[in-house]
Amino acid sequence: LQEKEELIEEWQPEPLVPPVSKDHPALNYNIVSGPPTHKITVNGKECINFASFNFLGLLDNEKVKNAAQASLKKYGVGTCGPRGFYGTFVDVHLELEERLAKFMRTEEAIIYSYGFATIASAIPAYSKRGDIVFVDEAACFAIQKGLQASRSNIKLFKHNDMADLERLLKEQETEDQKNPRKARVTRRFIVVEGLYMNTGDVCPLPELIKLKYKYKVRIFLEESLSFGVLGEHGRGITEHFRINIDDIDLISANMENSLASIGGFCCGRSFVIDHQRLSGQGYCFSASLPPLLAAAAIEALNIMEDNPDIFQTLQGKCKRIHRALQGISGLKVVGESFSPALHLQLEESCGSRENDVKLLKRVVDYCMNSGIALTQARYLEKEEKCLPPPSIRVVITVEQTEQELDKAASLIKEAAQSVLN
C-alpha cells in the first residue's frame, strides 16, 4: 500500500492541453465597437469595412431594421423551440420560405436557423453510408462537415477540373458494371459551390450539367457567395449562366451574406425539400429562426426585388478593385473579377505557413492603421481536407465609393511594398 501511495505521489499528469504562447493569433483578437456596417470601429479606430460579407449593404438599412423591430414588438425574441414543435410563425417563417421559393423560381424552400448548418444538414439528409459523393477539393468547411456526417464515399476531384471529374465518373461506371445489384441501390451526387469561398472563382456549371445527365448523378449547389450577387436579379449562378433551375437538384445558400440576416435556406422541387423537414438535422433539432431575423430577410428580399440595378453596381465595383489590385509586387489576386470576395495570396511562400501568415498579418495591420479594415482568411488547419494557402480576404460591398475602393487598392499596394520588399 505504501508503494502505491509513493507512486501516486510521484505521478505527474500530462497537461490536458498543449501550452499556447501569449502571442497566438487566436488569443489576440481585434475588438469591434458599435455596428460593423460600412464604417467599422476596430480597437477604437474607425475604418472602412472591407471585412464583412455585407455585399448589398443591408446591414445598416433602415427598412430592414424597422421590419425587424416591428416583428420583435409583435413576437418577442422567438419561441426557443424547433419548427416542428410550436416554433413556426405563419407570417414570418412560412412567408419567408414562400418568398425565397418564388424568388428562386423553385417549387419550395426550407429555412435553417444557422448558415453553416444548412448545407451540413442537407448533404447527410440525402447521402448515406454506401452512397458516393464527387466533390471539388476547394469545397468550403460547411460542405466538408456535411460530407463527414453523411459517412458516404467521398471522391475529391481537382478544383474546377472537369476532365478529372469525368475520369472519376468513368471509373465509377466501370465499378458499377462489375456489381450491377449494388449499383442499383447506390446514390451518386456531385457537390460544388457557385462561387467558391476559398478561391473566389466560379464553377463551370454548364459542363457539370452535361456530366450530370451523361453519368446520371444529382447536383447539389452551395450558393452562399453567389446568391444575391450573380445574375441579373441576384438569383445566383444559374441565372449567371442562364441555366434552367430544374437542372439542379438542390440549391442551398446562407442568408448571412447578401441578405444581412442569419440562417440559411435550401430550395428545389417539393419532394426534395419536404424530405428535409423530417431528416435535415439542423431543421429538426434547432430552435427556429428568431422571427425578427426572418422579417429582416423578407425585407432584404423586397429590397433586392425592388432594386435590380444593385447587382450591376456591385459587379462594377468588384471589377474596379480587381483591376486596381493587379500587378502588386509580391501579391497575387485570386478570384473572378466579378466576385465580391477576393483573396490576395503571396506570390512566393517564405518557406513556412506560419511565417506566411505573419507576413500577411503585417499587411493587414498596415492597412488597418490607415483606416482600411481587411481580414485574413481563417481555416481550422488540422481539419481541412485540402488546406488553402494563407490569404488576405478583401470583401466588396455596394456601399463602398469609388474613392474608397481606389484608396484601399493603393493602400494594399503601399503595404505590400513596405512589408514584402
Automatic annotation (TrEMBL):
Recorded catalytic activity of this chain's protein: dodecanoyl-CoA + L-serine + H(+) = 3-oxotetradecasphinganine + CO2 + CoA; L-serine + hexadecanoyl-CoA + H(+) = 3-oxosphinganine + CO2 + CoA; octadecanoyl-CoA + L-serine + H(+) = 3-oxoeicosasphinganine + CO2 + CoA; tetradecanoyl-CoA + L-serine + H(+) = 3-oxohexadecasphinganine + CO2 + CoA
Domain of life of the native organism: Eukaryota
UniProtKB keywords: Acyltransferase, Lipid metabolism, Pyridoxal phosphate, Sphingolipid metabolism, Transferase
Gene3D superfamilies in the record: Aspartate Aminotransferase, domain 1, Type I PLP-dependent aspartate aminotransferase-like (Major domain)
Aminotransferase class I/classII large domain sequence ranges: 46-410
Pfam families (UniProt xref): Aminotran_1_2
GO cellular component, one term: endoplasmic reticulum
InterPro entries linked to this entry: Aminotransferase_I/II_large, AON_synthase_class-II, PyrdxlP-dep_Trfase, PyrdxlP-dep_Trfase_major, PyrdxlP-dep_Trfase_small
A GO term, aspect molecular function: serine C-palmitoyltransferase activity
GO-annotated biological processes: ceramide biosynthetic process; sphingosine biosynthetic process
Cofactor: pyridoxal 5'-phosphate
Its EC number(s): 2.3.1.50
The UniProt record lists the keyword Acyltransferase: yes
Pathway the protein contributes to: Lipid metabolism; sphingolipid metabolism; Sphingolipid metabolism
Role this protein plays: Component of the serine palmitoyltransferase multisubunit enzyme (SPT) that catalyzes the initial and rate-limiting step in sphingolipid biosynthesis by condensing L-serine and activated acyl-CoA (most commonly palmitoyl-CoA) to form long-chain bases. The SPT complex is also composed of SPTLC2 or SPTLC3 and SPTSSA or SPTSSB. Within this complex, the heterodimer with SPTLC2 or SPTLC3 forms the catalytic core. The composition of the serine palmitoyltransferase (SPT) complex determines the substrate preference.
Family to which the UniProt record says this protein belongs: Belongs to the class-II pyridoxal-phosphate-dependent aminotransferase family.
Protein name per its UniProtKB record: Serine palmitoyltransferase 1
Gene that this polypeptide is encoded by: Sptlc1
